[in-house]
Amino acid sequence: MNESTDPLAIRFAALGDPTRLAIVNRLKERGPQSAGDLGDLADISAPAMSRHLKVLHRAGLVRRDVDKQRRIYSVEPEALQAIGSWSIGREEFWTASLDRLTTHLSPKE
Amino acid sequence: MNESTDPLAIRFAALGDPTRLAIVNRLKERGPQSAGDLGDLADISAPAMSRHLKVLHRAGLVRRDVDKQRRIYSVEPEALQAIGSWSIGREEFWTASLDRLTTHLSPKE
DNA sequence: TTGTTAATTAACAAACATGTTAATCGAATG
DNA sequence: CATTCGATTAACATGTTTGTTAATTAACAA
Asked: Which residues form a coiled coil (chains A, B) (predicted)?
């Protein structure tokens, strides 16, 4: 399972942690926040929070702006849009899916 | 990090593995497939594939239909739509985000 | 300078994820 | 009935993630 070079999979993995998902939700709802501001989101140490932010940043999900001694994090909109495109794309398939299912099933007695 | 009861986080985590993302993409593109049909997607054993399918199923991302000795897997459309709604929702925020960023930064010298 | 604040990196333990092979189980086939 | 097929569960090794505390770095304030 070394193929983690797929950007979409990396993003999903980053969002798969509840704390990191909460971080992104917070940034979506309240706008840019410093690392310290996000501290009350989860009952974890500052280093742990810092690591989560690093994961989100390396996945391209959040942007980091350095302001003196603070790091201001904000959502990276294109990353979310890419996820949206993937998930709602090929919608025409969905309706056809269940029909196609029956072709795979044995006739009912 | 015990809060894994968030359904959205569970789904993202499931899609965060490259093999599982490939499985979902395959089901989206070609429609329902049996566990065996999906075997050529990754160079892993049948038990490993079976485990991935179980993760996807428990996350609500795929449906499993039993047909005699086969298990037919297909995409669970609402799950993908839920992800789409999350990712593209609150779009009005995005444009405002960068403006709000400046309010967090110190004046430039 | 000295001390405080914001955030990170380093080192390490515990928990989780993912892969393997062997064993199991029901359905199909000769 | 004995065997093969499709898929899963069991047991276990290994690598990755996530958390902790301690140390480090840079900016700020006295």
From this structure: none
